[in-house]
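During the no-cost extension, the postdoctoral fellow (Dr. R.K.) reprocessed legacy sequence entries with the updated structure-token encoder. One reprocessed record is reproduced below for audit purposes.
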Amino acid sequence: MPARTLQSTSPHQLVFFESDIYSNHGHANDIGPMDLPGLVFNFHDYCGFRSGTTGNPTDLDACSAQELRTMQLRSEERPDIGSARQPEGPAWFMSEFGATTSEALVKRLTANADDLLLGWTYWAWKYYGDPTGSSAEALVQPDGDLSPTSHALSRAYPQAVAGTPISFSFDPTTREFHMLYAPNQRIAAPTVIFVPVFEHYPRGYRVTVDGGTVLSRTDATHLLIADQPGASSVSVTIEPGA
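Re-encoded structure tokens follow.
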């Protein structure tokens, strides 16, 4: 169904459009501008240096470098898809990546996505009958245990920002989250940060905020931050601790 038809029926919904399959490995996309509101440029990201049986990288450095370059190319292409309604280009979203049990690869890719302020969803098929041919990509293994990648995928991240994000990062090893954003005083709603309490903070976490005030209860899974009046920036740090 054309995007314009979708938006005429449901004008407040986002419309995700996707480049062709060859862009998964870093090739340019051939999508031009579309003068429509609410568009989101979504893409897949996989590397060629991987086992066809397990999906795990055969060369970790080459694999992660190729996938990072794909992210960078999609970022560079956004202004080329700009329109009068989205002059700087549409929002973007990595709608598929992973299909691996390599925690090292997933750590690198999720850190790269943080650096680029890029949201994502992870691809995982069930262990049995996988049509992609990858036997080791499931998040839940046949014995019921979670894949090692689940530790890296469970991350603190901003779900809604009362301003303009400048940077954010999460390290699953140290379990530290850092975020910096420029507040918008016209936004009354708080900033919302998801905190993976079960996976990373079973004994609690500490929050340090400069330029804002914590509204949520102690050890909440959704940390709420209210911007302080007159603040030019808000920085948030989350770390393990009571």
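The CA atoms of residues 7 and 13 lie 7 Å apart. The helical segments are 3-9, 60-77, 103-115, 149-153, 197-200. The remaining legacy entries will be reprocessed before the final report is submitted.
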